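Notes taken during the Thursday session

The instructor put the following on the board and asked us to keep it in front of us for the whole hour. The protein is rhizopuspepsin. We were told not to look anything up and to reason only from what is written here. First, the residues (407 in total):
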Amino acid sequence: MKITALVSLAVAVLAFTEASPIDRRPRPDSNKGHSVPLTRNKNYKHNGRAQIAKLAARYPQLGLEERFSHLRNNAASSGHVPLTDVGNDLEYYGNVSVGTPAQVVKLDFDTGSSDIWFPSSTCTTTACKAHTRFNSAKSSTFQNDGRRWTISYGDSSSASGTLGSDIVSVGGISVRQTIGLATKESSQFGSSPEDGLFGLGFNTIESVSGVKTFLDNAIAAGALAQPVVSAYLPSVRRNGGVGGEYLFGAIDSTKYTGSLTYVPVTQKGYWQVLIQDAAFNGQSLGQTSQGIVDTGTTLVIVGDAVAKSIHGKISGSKNDPNNGWLVPCSVKSSTANVSFKMGGVSFNVPVADLAYEDMGDGSGNCFSGIQGGQDGLWILGDVFLKNNYCVFSQTSSPSIGIAPLNY
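Then, after some discussion, the predicted C-alpha cells were revealed:
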C-alpha cells in the first residue's frame, strides 16, 4: 500500500540523515548536462529528530509525529513523577503512560524487582477487573512479543501473561520498552490501588532472560541527563505524606540535608549493599549484613538477632508468635533512633516510626516497623526510605547515594 511505502521511505531517510554527510563532487562530462558542485558543511551536526519533525510536517499522512514521538522527546533530560502515598506509608504509586495514544496506568515503583507489568484488557480475573486494563489493540505503537511471562513476590502474590513492547513514558521520558501484560493475577492484587508494578532493579532479575529494563533503555537512548533515579518517599507522620516523587535523570538537592554518601552496589540484581553496622541511639549492636534498599517493601526486615537487640532496648516490646515484633504505640513520641551504617555513615530510622500500625485490640500495642526473619540479606524498605533520600545510580560502577531527608 502507498502508506506503507511512504513509511519505509521515511525510515530510510531517517537512517540516511543519521549518517555522515557525503562530499559529492561533479563529474566532468559535458554530455550529462550542467553539474552543481556541493560543499561539505563542516558545522553539520547529526539531528535525526529534526529530520523526523520535517518529514512529519511534509507528509502528515504518515503519522510520524506519533510513530516517532519517543525519539522526539528523548533529548537528555529529567522526568518528575508525583507519588500518591497509600494509607500509613504502605506503598507509593505514580502515573505511567503507555502506548499511542497514551493509556495511563498507576504503578508501584519497585527497586526490588525489574519487570514492568499491568493487566491486559483480555484478563478477566477479579483482581484484573478491579484495575485499569491496557488495551494493546488501541495502541498504534504496540508490538506483540509472544513470549510467556510470570512473576511472584515475597508475599505470595503472583501474575502471569505475555510480553509485548510499546512506548512507555515516565514523567516525559519515553522509550520503547518490553512490558508484561497480565492475563492472570492472584487475589492479593485485587485490593491494591495501583494497577501493576514498575521494576527499577537490574536486568539480571528480569523474569524473562534478555529483557532490558526501562533504565537500561533510557540510558542507552541518551534520554536521561544522569543515569539515576532519585526517590523521595514522604511520611504521613512527618509531613502528611505529601510531595513524594521519583525523579528520573536528576537529583533534587532540596529534598535532603548535608551531602549524599554513595554506597557501592555489591551485587547487581537488587540494589544490594553492605550494611556495616546497626545501632540504637548510637550504640553499636555488633551486627553486619548484606542488604537491599527496596522501595517496594513497606517495612525494614533484618536478621533475627538484630531485631531482638533493637526491640530489647524498647521497653514493653514483645515478639508475638502470630504478629511478629510489637512495640507500645506510645513510642510515637520517642526521640530515639535506630541507625544503619553504610559507606561509613550512619542513617537514622526514628523509633517513632516503629509504631507502624495500631493492633486495634485495645492493647496499646503497635505492629513494629522493624521485623526479623531476614538473616543474611536485610531489607531496608519504606520505613527507611521515608527518612532518607536515595539516589539509585546506574553507572558502570552502580551505587546508591543516601542522605537524611529534609522535612
